[in-house]
Structures are given as C-alpha cells and as structure tokens.
Amino acid sequence: MRIKHFLKHTIMASVICMLLSIIGKAQQADTISKAKLDWKPVNLASAGNNALNGVLFYHKAGECDKNIVILLKVVNANKFPVKVQWQEDPLVTKSIIVPASTSIEGKCNAGSADSSESKLVILKSGADKVAQMKQLFLTTLIVSEVK
Q1: Please, what is the average pLDDT of the chain?
Q2: How far apart are CA 1 and CA 19, in angstroms?
Q3: Alpha-carbon distance 141 to 82, whole Å?
Q4: pLDDT in tens, 14-48
Q5: What's the rounded Cα separation, in Å, for the pair 55 and 50?
Q6: Rounded to 5 degrees, what are φ and ψ at 20?
Q7: What is the C-alpha separation between 42 and 122, in angstroms, rounded?
Q8: Residue 144: phi, psi to the nearest 5?
C-alpha cells in the first residue's frame, strides 16, 4: 500500500515538473516571437508584398537622441550581394551594399553617418512629410546585383 502511494506521488511530481518545464519553454518562445514582431513589413505593393528582387524590407518606430525615427531592416535572401538604393528627399539618394544572405538593421549611433546602419534610420517629422517620404522611398527603391 505504501509503495502504491509512493509511486502515485512520484508520478504526479514528475508530471508536474514536466508541465512546468513545457510552460516555461512556451513563455520563452512567446517572448522571442514578440521580439520578432517588432519589425513590420514595408508594403512595397498594394498586395502587401515586402520583397523586391529577393530583398525583404521591414520597419519599426524608434527613438534616437530624443527624436522619433523610423528604423529600416533590409534582408538579402539572395546568394549574391545587392545594392539597395532609395531617396528620402528629392535631392538626396542613399544606398547600401547588403552581402548575400545577410540582414542589416537601422541603429541609432551606429558610427559614421556613412555606415549602412546609420543610413537605415529615417527622421520622422510630421505626418505629411512621412507620407511624402514613404511615397518617394517606394517610387525610387532599386535593388540590383553587385557584380
């Protein structure tokens, strides 16, 4: 009788430990997936596609030196490097080189203003200007293979 009672409690304790372990892993996976959700696809077409010539584009809001900004993320899914070029202003063209199978994220204080990470930070100033910048970005965006 004592052996049955002991086995019953041992099995219950094992099941409880297993469930706690599974719940902990599920919560950790949920945290990781929420972190991935910070980046939202850039709608490059009316169909909601965020890819152009094998390169995926994402964005998220951020703050750099107390300024509200838009951070861009570029993911090159190609097996070759690409040049990504765009305009945020009619007078200024920006470009970066993205190595094959690599991603580059916009970052505050990424070093020189010429670094790829710095170029992927867009100062957000007023809703009307953001709409104009988005339209200009979408109409001037070019992805080409680097040879």
Answers
A1: 79
A2: 27
A3: 13
A4: 545 454 455 554 444 443 344 445 999 998 876 67
A5: 8
A6: -65, -40
A7: 14
A8: -135, 150
* Amino acid making up residue 46: S
Angle, CA 49 vertex, CA 46 and CA 50 arms, to 5°: 125
Q: What are phi and psi of 112, to 5 degrees?
A: -70, 155
Structure tokens at 74: 């570029």
Instruction: Report d(CA 94, CA 85) in Å as an integer.
Output: 6
Q: Residues with Cβ < 8 Å from 65, sequence gap 6 or more?
A: 108, 109
Cα dist from 130 to 6, 11, 26, 39, 86, whole Å: 68, 61, 38, 18, 15
How is residue 2 written in tokens? 């004592």
Residue ranges of alpha helices (H) inside 38-147 are 116-119, 127-140
* The model's pTM: 0.70
